[in-house]
Design brief:
21% helix
Length: 97
């Protein structure tokens, strides 16, 4: 009988990891995972006409404005200016010393 050569630990790990990575990449390429499960029953659409709820857009939303930022967000505000330096005293030493 011909014996297969003993594989190193790294080679075994690589051979086990390759199919897992391949399957992961294949599943990541799917847009949705709904069509993968063969046991789920498909929901049937209810009969009737479909009409948009807000055909002119959601009332009260201005689509030309950027979204509001949270109160603690500094996005969009100019950076704070540093505090002015203390004026240097000239000539006299502080009193009390």
């Amino acid at each position: 009988m011909h014996r297969l050569p003993k594989l190193s630990r790294r080679m075994r790990r690589a051979l086990l990891l390759a199919p897992v990575l391949g399957l992961t990449l294949a599943v990541a390429g799917c847009e949705t995972l709904d069509s993968i499960n063969p046991f789920v029953e498909r929901e049937k659409l209810l009969p009737g006409a479909r009409a948009p709820v807000f055909p002119e857009g959601v009332p009260g939303v201005d689509y030309n404005q950027p979204p509001p930022q949270p109160a603690n967000s500094s996005y969009g505000y100019p950076p704070a200016e540093p505090a002015p330096a203390e004026p240097a005293t000239t000539g006299a030493a502080p009193s009390g010393q």
